[in-house]
């Protein structure tokens, strides 16, 4: 830190230079220094004082922004993690609204319904790096994470959502004959009961299907990550 007494010395010196000295009827008064001489002296004092000022602390460099979240293998479409359950009405309404907005662009959409397969929740948590419970829906466009219902609404109202989906493949107008567009079918191992029977161990939990006795449609549904 600089010495405060140095500032006091500077101020006193400046006053002596700028305030004229009274003559007191002296027969031979001393000639007052010219204004240019005063300016040179004051400037030299200011330069000397500035060298004693503490250096400003260096500004901290801005923290680098985190890399964007991406979903490999989905660069040519839209992926929506959602739910069709009505247990939480606000969540159901958000999911329905987002799907309706995205379907209006008639592009390929992979709807991953967590109510049909809870593994979708685990999959999404791994992608976002979050173990806590997350609100649905969550949307990826062109392999890049966009956000939830509020982000989709804002982008749609601003006209930016249309730009994001431009160039993506159009949705298939033909409904899958195997699943009827639901992307799941009954498990052929347990016939949807989620239980299998063998003479050695009796009944056991089926490992081929979800807790609902469903498997992903082999014709139209993408394999899990």
UniProtKB/TrEMBL annotation:
Positions of transmembrane segments: none
Domain Glutaredoxin residues, every copy: 79-146
Source organism superkingdom: Eukaryota
InterPro entries: Glutaredoxin, Thioredoxin-like_sf
PANTHER family registered for this protein in UniProt: GLUTAREDOXIN DOMAIN-CONTAINING CYSTEINE-RICH PROTEIN CG12206-RELATED, GLUTAREDOXIN DOMAIN-CONTAINING PROTEIN
Full protein name: Glutaredoxin family protein
Organism from which the protein derives: Actinidia rufa
